[in-house]
Amino acid sequence: MDLLKLKDKNVVVMGVANERSLAWGIAKSLFEVGANVIFTYRKERSLAKLEKALESHGYEPKMVVQCDVNEDESIQHAFTLIGETIGTIHGIVHSVAFAHAEDLKNDFVETTRSGYAFAQDSSAYSLIATAREARRYMAEGGSIITMSYLGAERVLDGYNVMGVAKAALEASVRYLANDIGKDGIRVNAISAGAVRTLSAKGVPSFNTILGQIEEKAPLKRNITQEEVAKMSIAMLSDLSSGVTGEVIYVDAGYHIMG
């Protein structure tokens, strides 16, 4: 019995930076369950890394489309191209977040107006714009998931403006879930624990955070890219058909500790 019901379904994966990306781990799992994977990329540098990863694993994506999440026209063009080519979109993995390096390194109070706006636009508003453009091609309903982090609700050293952007992202998940639930579209966030990704390198205290999690988390360890992927597959699949507007933690239980 196929409980996942993802075979031959069309799923858009946004935000693969390299093979350490959470988005890449999810994409691998989607290939393994027989889904049709459509990738978006922001810049040529990302495309080159994506193509290298696909070639090394022998994966054949359904489509690869350029999409700059900071530009409405680019998002609209990307999803129009995807929708008109494949017909129906069944799922979206939004794994996109950007902030200026200086706004992560400096004290939060020193965040610039432009830096704040950029982090919010890239990391939170991009989900709203994506859902708006994809919605018309999700005629059979489906699932949208985005990637969050504990810094959305707690102060974590070095996360700063990105924590505030992730808080906005999680609030956006709830409002979007309410708006498009009537269309059968579910919207949830995966709050992943610390994983050595490219974006994690931008957090100055990242190595310290890894050590704290191993010491304090109920499972006494950090989580893996594969564990995030497994939960993401569940949230994209029919297994989570009654779940929307939620933040699902995959962090070895660290978030429950005082």
From TrEMBL:
Pathway: Lipid metabolism. Pfam families: adh_short_C2. Belongs to the short-chain dehydrogenases/reductases (SDR) family. FabI subfamily. It comes from the Bacteria. This is Enoyl-[acyl-carrier-protein] reductase [NADH]. Its EC number is 1.3.1.9. It is an enzyme of class 1 (oxidoreductase).
